[in-house]
Amino acid sequence: MAAQNDKTQSPATLMDVAKAANVSIATASRVLNGSTRRVRNQSYVKVMEAATKLNYRPNAYAQAVAKGTAPNIVLLVSDISDPYFAAVSQGVVKAAAEHGLAVTISVAPTPREELEAVRKATATRPRGIIIAESEYVDAPERDPLTDELRLYESTGGRAVFILNRNLPFPAVDVANDVGARAIARLIIDSGYTRPVILRGDETYRTSRERLDGVLAAFADAGVAIDPRATVNGRFSRTEGYAAIMQMARAGLLKPGNGALYEGRGADSVIALNDVMAIGAMTALRANGIEPGVDVGVTGFGDIPYSADVYPPLTTVHLPLEQMGQAAVGSVLAKRDAQEKNGEIGSGSADAAAAGRLIYVQSAPDVVLRGSLPRR
């Protein structure tokens, strides 16, 4: 009596179908996964007959990749622990989920890591790539990044930036210079004329725009900024803390010989993002300087924690979650429009230029809180 095989039969694979139909795996994949590339009618019939006989079940993800539209969006951020990127990511995830799309988040803090992350992402052919990243506008990776994303778009993908880098792709942006001028005028109107300015790296576009706006507002008011008063906090809480600690230890902040502003010291700290402002407040307290009492402090971004610190942080409101949602909307709108017009894979210049820049908020709001009392 023959021994009975109790093992459950394994599901048929694409290789099994190709072998049974006597075609290549690539041909079987084009037939079963819905590729837009044509297959000879004879091969098509053979593959479908083999698939039916073997009870083959196509892989949904493989079908999407074959069509150039994998059911996910890749989001690149510089630092997922930064509340700014966390809020943007939340907007992306929510909007993607509403359309049945998953989100893969990758962290790439440098231009080189960003380029490598984009190369890995394009290999999986996601529906869209959203880049909320470093914005290093002078990086040597700028041209290779553009080439990589153009190639990706030529196959039907969509790339969108959060904050504009002046690259040939859509960007969700805000008016950084307008917000910076607005908060600088509030500082001046509140009686502060001796600020320390915490900026980001000089090659960082957002930092440049915000710094230029602040300096322009002070210049318009006839207020001179001490050359030693602008320092790099690298858009980081730890680096903002370290920068203020170093200035305090050097005797620059409190009135006295060698202090800023001809010995009068600083009366305010203008941080060009919220996490630097929060780090600065901790450093000020460590040196016996009370934020919101001895000096005014402002930020930029209105991250969720800005209202919870003490004193609550005066800042420029950015619609961070809405920015993430707008980026997803741009990915989907452009894709849907191209499918309707038959432009997928054509590399159409007009299609690439459409929706070039999306301003979520043209004039950011200033939120006045306890960290900037009137003097």
TrEMBL record:
Q: Provide the alphabetized UniProt keywords.
A: DNA-binding, Transcription, Transcription regulation
Q: Could you give a GO molecular-function term held by this entry?
A: DNA-binding transcription factor activity
Database matches in Pfam families: LacI, Peripla_BP_3
| Database matches in SMART domains | HTH_LACI
UniProt cross-references to InterPro entries, sorted A to Z: HTH_LacI, LacI/GalR-like_sensor, Lambda_DNA-bd_dom_sf, Peripla_BP_I
Domain annotation HTH lacI-type: ranges: 12-67
Say if the entry is tagged with keyword DNA-binding. Answer: yes
Q: At the top level of its lineage, which domain of life is listed?
A: Bacteria
Name of this chain's protein: LacI family transcriptional regulator
Q: Which organism is it from?
A: Bifidobacterium callitrichos
